[in-house]
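REQUEST
  id: r-88c1
  op: predict_structure
  target: Two component transcriptional regulator, LuxR family
  payload:
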Amino acid sequence: MSAAPRFAASGLAEPASRRSTRPRDLLIVDDHPIVLQGFRLLAEEAGIARVHEARDIVAGYRTFHRHRPSVVVTDLSFRDDGLSGLSLIRRIRALEPGARILALSMHRDPVIVARVLECGALGFVLKDAPAAAFLEALEAVANGRSYLPHDIAIEIAMLNAGARDLPLANLSSREMQILVLIGKGKPYDEIAEILALNYRSVVNATATLRCKLGVGSMAELMQIAAAQARTLP
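RESPONSE
  id: r-88c1
  status: 200
  body:
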């Protein structure tokens, strides 16, 4: 028998207010076919009858708009689009404020995970976590509860406690996206196209980044950006 947790699995009766509810359907957004297949199998093992899939944020948003699944599971990084998963989370929450979203990623930067929660995701899980951890996270989010790996939750708490001493913690989600794309060597015009911004907005955001991070030159900013980009898959 599998050791993975099951939705609403219990040998004892639970109070109605604490009883787990199985999601009726699920949307998984990821650009790796093998990852999609793996999560589909896990979701089916958990007893979820209908699993929708999307391989980019545009298709993810359209699929959510059409089917309104109970839970959305989305990666944060799509090819060369930096942290475009944050944009998808924001757009879904703008369309459906009660949407239940679980973010997943290969990197564990507490600053970025904090941004994930600020954008409206209820939970975060690492891609290399055991299957049981993914199912636990999925169950929590499906029932409207937050979920974070314990060690990352502690790091975020420490981050919040010392935010004044950590410049990256003061960046907005959009500024983090621009910083990562700069670190990937993207020019301003390409960043504007990827993030659906105008060129001047990217230029102004870059100037704001230099100010917030306390750097005097573009070269210094690019060094910080490159270090941040290396934390992404």
